[in-house]
Amino acid sequence: MTSSPEEICLHVCVTCRQAGGPDDKALRPGAILHRALTEALEQPDAPKVRVEPVECLSVCKRPCTIAVSGPGRWTYIYGDLSPDTSVETILDGLRRYAATSDGLVPWRERPEAFRKGVVARIPPFKTDSAA
């Protein structure tokens, strides 16, 4: 089973911050990245992706962090992203992810920040109940 691009979800850690960064969650780099991606994904030429804020992806040593997932697709977690410079890179990565049936983008075809920033790759969840 494959999912349509509209079922792809971009999870953005809104609590990500650099060591010693602001305590105010609205000023944290993760929250800034979430706002920038939400705005970018509203543009007509943006990939069809649902963006959701998450409180923590537990990759605190590599902020900012995102996860990309979809039904029947591999999930990827990426870190070391910048709210100031990574939006276009993330959109490029999302387009490539959406163009696959299983979420597996060949390593050489991934944006450089995705090649260097990958934290984890999680297999698709199986929904068949036969054991």
TrEMBL record:
Transmembrane segments: none annotated. Pfam families: DUF1636 (PF07845). InterPro entries: DUF1636 (IPR012863), Thioredoxin-like_sf (IPR036249). This is DUF1636 domain-containing protein.
